[in-house]
Design brief:
Elements: H1 8-18, H2 27-49, E1 62-67, E2 72-77, H3 84-92, H4 96-106, H5 111-114, E3 129-137, E4 144-151, E5 154-160, E6 166-173, H6 188-199, E7 206-215, E8 223-231, H7 248-257, E9 267-273, E10 279-285, E11 302-306, E12 309-315, E13 327-331, H8 341-345, H9 348-371, H10 373-392, H11 399-402, E14 407-410, E15 416-418, H12 419-425, E16 433-437, H13 441-445, H14 450-455, E17 460-463, H15 466-475, E18 477-478, E19 481-485, H16 494-506, H17 508-517, E20 524-527, E21 536-541, H18 546-553, E22 564-569, H19 575-585, H20 587-605, H21 612-622
Parallel strand pairs: 1-7, 11-13, 16-17, 16-19, 20-22
Antiparallel strand pairs: 1-2, 2-6, 3-4, 3-6, 4-5, 7-8, 9-10, 10-13, 11-12, 14-15, 14-17, 18-19, 21-22
Helix pairs in contact: 2-6, 9-10, 10-15, 17-20, 19-20
Bound molecules: adenosine-5'-diphosphate and magnesium ion.
Adenosine-5'-diphosphate binds at residues 31, 35-36, 39, 77, 79-80, 82, 90-91, 95, 97-99, 119, 121-122, 167.
Subunit structure: Homodimer.
Region (C): 551-624
Keywords: ATP-binding, Chaperone, Cytoplasm, Nucleotide-binding, Stress response
Amino acid sequence: MATKEFKAESKRLLNLMINSIYTNKEIFLRELISNASDAIDKSYYRSLVDENVSFNKDDFYIRITADKEKRTLTINDTGIGMTKDELENNLGIIAKSGSFAFKNENEAKDGVDIIGQFGVGFYSAFMVSDLVTVKSRAVNSDEAYKWESKGVEGYSIEPCEKENTGTEIILKIKESTDDEKYDEFLDEYKIRSLIKKYSDFIKYPIKMLVKKSKLKEGSKDEYEDYFEDETLNSMVPIWRKNKNELKPEDYNQFYMDKHFGYEKPLKVIHSKVEGVVSYNTLLFIPAKAPYDFYTKEFQKGLELYSNGVLIMEKCADLLPDYFSFVQGLVDSADLSLNISRELLQHDRQLKFIAKKIKEKIKSELLLMLKNDRDKYIEFYKNFGRQLKYGVYSDFGSNKDVLQDLLMFYSSTEKKLVSLGEYVSRMKEDQKFIYYATGESIERIEKLPQTEVVKDKGFEILYFNDDVDEFAIKMLMKYNEKEFKSVSSKDLGFESDEKEDKKETEENKELFDFMKEALKGKVKEVRASKRLKNHPVCLANDGDLSIEMEKVLKMMPDNKDIKADKILEINTNHQMFGAIKKAFAEDKDKLKMFSNLLYNEALLIEGLPVDDPVQFANDVSCLIK
Ligand code: ADP
Ligand code: MG
């Protein structure tokens, strides 16, 4: 029988397992049992869509057998089984789901400490065994195959006999050493306690033939041994238990077992709802975004159970997109077991549950913001973008749900604040909620446009995320207060505006000349009181802001998009004297000055200068 090689990355992971000095080797059993349980789930799931597969609840179980003499521990399941190809693909290559993601994420780190943080999968078997044999027969197939491996050298696959559908994994347990007592994995008591510890919530019975003793018939003091099948797990799923029976560790363990995430969740929401529709939910807010969260591959959704039995692995309809980061499950006895995916979408009960879940997540997040701000900020740093996208998408139809959950960096508080907090602090003469946009907090902080607003003592929200301004434009108002960009044409300061008008009027010819010199680039040139120390800036007229122009330009077909720009001049700045002089004496020079000032303003906005070579030459010209 030819031996095949493992794929390179599998080899590496295997090596890690075999040579692991990891003390928690016992988790291999949890991994294999969870795979067995998944396989039974799949069988059940298949029976819903395939007439040829039947699901009789009593036929589904996991069996553990320990043989001390042969030093074998066998894990048998009656699940979906694997074909020859599947044996090859699923066991010869690291599975995509858990293990592979882990490897990608943690390449740089030392393997040892990460093993314990999440499910490591099938290969963990090699931590305790020197030979692993997998016999499997796939559902609806009459062929069975045997996969066998001693570790890194490779594996072999050949046909074998197997009576029932399902998978049998036989571990040849390593000999004990001075440091490691592998023997204990063959010990009934140990196996029992491992199952209680890790696999108690597995919903299929985990059976083992256990040795018992009873009084011999007809005797009063003589005992005899006999064997009896016992189910070692309590099978009550965690979400059906009472909250007060459960410890945070229980939830965390469940979360990891389910591969919902690699580190413990930020927040657990466990609730039982009774009413028109009754259901249990167990929801988790992850501490970090999953590695594929911002890719197309990411699928949102909750597991959906009908009375404890899985009917859908990722029910997308249960979660709005803006809460797509939530993991977990819903279990309702009011849902029909045999409901098809198509029907499910229109199911009234399901819609009702989805609505309630949405409200629940929102209220839990608001509570977190109120009572545990640091935690909320941690959450917001990971998923705030998602909420902002939520405000923006669907034509703003979700803004009411989301607006209280938004946070932005504040110029006065120097930290993230909510819109509610901003509004509660607004000055009596303040009409708008002011914001400034830019690439980073540091850059926004220096924007000339912020000066006058800060001078008035008004707080400014800093928008440094692409989506921020789009979201706010969709929101339009918060608590009756309109949002106003510090770069917008009018800031709502009446006395300043009057003066600007007056000065612009006084220098009309000069500004008209500059506008002509910048034809097609700016809509207007004018005097501005918004500038204190800086000579120039760009202001914005109309709905499309300069920041939005930047974002939109990065998308295909938007190359020509343009915000209406106004070049604002600080007439109190000393450079204005030179401008006036050039206007009187040297118009060509003023043309050059106009271009220079415009380019300066572009640079401040984080936009590229129009013609870098010309710009450089003009600047050099001045150094004379
Ligand atoms: P994961 O469970 O995260 O997918 P594993 O390494 O634990 O990764 O398992 C790899 C794959 O092998 C599984 O995804 C599954 O397809 C297959 N597999 C493992 N054990 C069984 C089993 N008992 N029955 C059927 N398929 C199994
Ligand atoms: Mg697994």
